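User: Study the fold:
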Amino acid sequence: MPRPKDARADFSKTTKDKIRAKCNDRCAICLQKPPNQGRQCAHLFDASRTGAKQVEVAIYMGMISPGYQRSSPENGMVQCPTCHLAFFDSEHIALSPTPQVLKYIVEYLRATDAAERKPLYEVFRLLNDALEGIDVDLPDMASILPFLDLYTLVVLLPDKLNGSEIPAHHLPDLFILDGSQFVPAPADTLPNARGVARIFDVSVISDELPKAYYTIPLSPKHAEFTQQRYWRVPAKPEVILMMLMERIRGVTEPGCEEIKFARVIYCTLHLQKIGEYEVNPPNSKKRMSEDDNNERPHKVSRSGGLPLTKGRSGLRIRIPAPKTVTSCGPGPPKALRLKI
C-alpha cells in the first residue's frame, strides 16, 4: 500500500492564500467573512498523523489517487470559527455528496464486476469530464450530473445538536431543477416546494450582497430542517465522501440517507479487497435438506476448491479453497490465511 510521505501537513502561507482566494475569503458553509485572524483554513484530511493514516486508507480503497498531498490547496477550505470548531472539528456534522450521487456509486459498484471496476477517484474524474460535455465510458449518468458539484450537510449526532443552528448573514437564492441544471427559481417559489433547493455557493458571493440574518438548522426537530439545502464548495467529491466515511465509523444510529449509502460504499470497497464467494441459484430438481440421509454426494468444484454444498435455503454455494489475501486495514499489506 502506498504510504503518504508527510506525517504532519500544515498549510504554508502561500497555500493558505490560495485556499482563501478560491473561497472568496469567506466561510464555505455559512458564507460569512470573518476578520483575517478568524478565517480558518480547515483541512479535509487531517493535518495530524491521523490524516496521514486517512490518506493511506483512502489510497488503498481506491478513493483518491496516489500522490495526494494534504498540504496542498485542494485539501483545504475556509471555515469560520463557529463552523470549524463547534461543528466540523468536533465531528457533529460533515459534508457529503448528494444522495443522488451516492446512489449512483452504489449501483455502479453492484452492477460492475469487481475485476472491471474503476477506482472511485477515476469514476469521479470521468463524471466531471461528462459534466464538461466529454463522452466517457460510464453507464448512464445524465440524471446525476446536476448534483455532481453539490454537497449536503449531514448531521452525525442529532441528539447532541437538538436546537442547534449555524448563524448566517447572507440568504442564498432558491434554485429549481430544470432538466439537466439548476436555474433560479421564480420569485414566488416556496423554499419547501418539490425540486427546490437553496444553494450556498461561496464562489459567486460578492461583498455587495445585502445582509439578511438567516440560520441553518441542525436539529431534525427544527421546523425548517427538511428544506433542501446544497453547498457548492471547492473540493473533490471523492475526498468529501472519504471524510464522511471516516466520520461515520463511530456513528451507531441508522442515520440519514447519505450515511446509509456511505456505509454500503465503504463495506463494498473493503469486501472487494478480500474477494467474493460465488452463490448459484437452486436448480429445479428436488430440494434436499442437509440433514437428509439420502443426500447425494457432494460435487467437487472444477477450480479445485472445496465441495459444492447445499444449505437449508436450497442455494448451491461454491466455497473456494483457502487462499492468501491482503489485509484491508491501514498499514503495509500483511499476508492473512483465510479460513473457511
